[in-house]
Amino acid sequence: MKVGVLGSGVVAQVLAGGFIKHGHQVMLGTRDTAKLADWVKQHQGAQAGSFADAAKFGELVVLAVKGTVALEAAKAAGGANLAGKPVMGATNPIADAAPVNGVLKFFTNLDEALMERLQRAFPDAHFVKAFNSVGNAMMINPQYKAGKPTMFICGNNDQAKATVSGICDQFGWDVADMGKVEAARAIEPLCMLWCILGFARNEWTHAFKLLHQQ
Ligand SMILES: NC(=O)c1ccc[n+]([C@@H]2O[C@H](COP(=O)([O-])OP(=O)(O)OC[C@H]3O[C@@H](n4cnc5c(N)ncnc54)[C@H](OP(=O)(O)O)[C@@H]3O)[C@@H](O)[C@H]2O)c1
Asked: What pTM value is reported for the model?
């Protein structure tokens, strides 16, 4: 698959590396391709371009930018370049304010997730929440004694969720589909819960697992 990854930070680079590892073609999108020159040199099959170039390139688009600028980055990518495509959103709505006792501050509230804002602004794109509540070190084929961890996903479009579920499977995750876009109100704050352990114990390699009785 051709994958356009919007972002140049650690999450964009780790996810892009995972796509390459599993045989996909990748273009990263950034405002400044110079900052990705070394990374592209080190990863055969990777390219870098503008946000719009990467969105246009991808059959699957990944949004991996700072939460406060997610709408801006999606606008730069261009609605027409996102239309009809799965847009896998790892982005969290973390506010530019210090955590309180290790609890991150969000700029959203429990009645409106960041992904709902994005879905409303780009109604023709098929947003799917995924990879937001695990640290980048464990995103690609993590190994845990307890088996595969759970990736909570949600989104309005079933075909887009099937595409993202396939990627989660390749990246070594069990998928728990939590439903439509509103479920992001619950999935995005999992990142707060995940980070509490990090701040409290300096542990950054845990992951969530959903247990069913049967
Ligand atoms: N760090 C983790 O382990 C982790 C885990 C799960 C989810 N997340 C979430 O993943 C997302 C990415 O995290 P990150 O740590 O890799 O990177 P980040 O530092 O949160 O974001 C970097 C990206 O944001 C873009 N950006 C910043 N200001 C911008 C602006 N004004 N307009 C357009 N784009 C702008 C940058 O674009 P340029 O390339 O143009 O500079 C860059 O691509 C975040 O939402 C984070 O909450 C992080």
From this structure: 0.98
